Amino acid sequence: GRADVAAFALDLSQENNAMTPLARRSLFALAMLAAMAATGAQAQGTPKNRVTLAMVLEPPGMDPTIAPAAAIGEIVHYNVLEGLTKINVDGSVTPLLAESWSIDADGKSYTFRLKKGVRFHDGEAFDASDVKFSFERAKDDKSTNKAKKAVFDNIRRIDTPDAHTVILTLDNADPNFLFRMGENTAVILDPKSAAGTATKPVGTGPFTFDDWKKGNSVSLKKWPGYRDARSVKLERVTFRFINDPAARVAALLAGDIDGVPRLDAPQAVKQLQADKRFVVAIGNTAGKGIVAINNKKKPFDDVRVRRAIAHAIDRKAFIDGVLEGLAKPIGSHFAPTDAGYVDLTGQYPYDPAKATALLKEAGVATPLNVTLTLPPPQYARKGGEVIAAQLAKVGIVAKIENVEWAQWLGGAFKGNFDLTIINHVEPLDFMQYANTAYYWGYDNKPFRDLTAKYAQTSNPKDRTKLFADIQKTIATDAVNAFVFNPAQVAVARKGLKGLWSSSPIFANDMAAVSWQ
């Protein structure tokens, strides 16, 4: 029965590209009915010390300090690997490996007092030398840490006056620094095990890395040596990789999984809300869904062409048709939850006539043939069809190229693309626009000067104005076409408590999860 349900869902997904939105919604409903028919009733209860969750993407490795994929943090962050601070579901920052901290008046020096008696899973003691090693590794010229430029290059000095004290001195004050220390790029590794983190992460968290079945799942096991092991209720956590949204919903209905922290199947939300076996929570994210544009390639190096693309996109139609309305429109690379957010959606309203005129003004002959590269998530695959249809109305013919996640990271993310659709989930990642080597190839010295001034400014009023100017510059230059800020939809089997209802960062804090 369950195998048939999964096969049925996969059959539906294979036909998905040829279906209208209404037909797709009907197919999701049929998949659910098939799953319920296969089980006949509530599936056999999961042991109350185990949980199986579904994820959309399988990460390329398990070291968030060297690879950019957000899926890494969904598995290891807070569970296996920990940092000095912790970002909570409401976005607040509290101590984690740091017991406390103090900040000098100029905002450039942070003194962290570390927790004592903490050990890594392999028995090595955690102390200030591990923090120094981890951050020097992140600052190294060969570092591929995605926060290197924005966070670690700003650390001028790392002092360790004793085994449980770390003093970080910054070049420029950063009011978000404590938040940054809670992101997965700042997890603390031990020198003896750091090199193997990508395949066998060793941390200080409540779970140890147990098994990785490539293409299928990763499992974690409760660590008895954790400093607060009694509070951890789960003995085993399994993350299953189910790329297809219909198959993911079918697995949930069949009882093969206990929850989906970030449901990528908006068509299924209403049906799941009506099913008494599940609890559906809708919250916020820091995501920025964009049509990324290769600013280094012609004709996209002309701002008029990029503005034409922005005017050609109907955000509302995308959000309604692809995300079932579960998103907010955005006009720059910022989420509405960001403090100091400016709504710039009115700068490029949907206007095909304006888009056509801008292309003509830029001397672009139509039809303009481009490639639209799409990674696996549904917002990209299904959204790509919508974007391609909208671009076609202004003379831009987008050839769709579907790629797997590893191919996207090795191609588009390396700058080998025309257009692509991607949801940037990292909070406050606007500094990537000051990185000329970043994949979209934006190179604007006045913008870099603006971000440098922002970093050096401590006055709150001045920072707020500069923050607004940063947003407006990115929008005015139409670096990318900014489309949506997705809502988070978390679905759990009734009785499973503690899954995050919002995602200030992409993480699953499994030490807080339990069966009622």
Extended strand count: 21
Strands of the widest sheet, in order across it, are 14-18-13-17-15-16
Overall SS class: alpha+beta
Low-confidence region ranges? 1-18, 35-43
State the distance separating the first and last CA atoms.
28 Å
Mind telling me the C-alpha Rg?
23 Å
- Biggest sheet, in brief? 6 strands, mixed
How many helical elements? 14
Chain-averaged pLDDT: 91
User: What is the global morphology?
Assistant: globular
Percent of sequence in beta strands:
15-25%
Helical content band = 25-40%
Structural description of this entry:
The chain is of the alpha+beta class and 516 residues long. It contains 14 helices and 21 strands. It has helices at residues 2-15, 21-39, 70-76, 128-139, 177-180, 245-253, 269-273, 303-312, 315-323, 352-361, 378-392, 405-410, 445-456, 460-476; strands at residues 50-55, 85-87, 93-95, 98-103, 109-114, 155-162, 165-170, 207-213, 217-222, 236-241, 259-260, 278-283, 288-293, 327-329, 368-374, 396-402, 419-424, 481-486, 488-493, 496-497, 514-515. Strands 14-18-13-17-15-16 form a 6-stranded mixed beta sheet. A 4-stranded mixed beta sheet has the order 1-10-9-8, with helices on one face. It has a 4-stranded antiparallel beta sheet with strand order 4-5-7-6, with helices on one face. 46% of the residues are buried. The model is unreliable at 1-18 and 35-43 (pLDDT under 50).
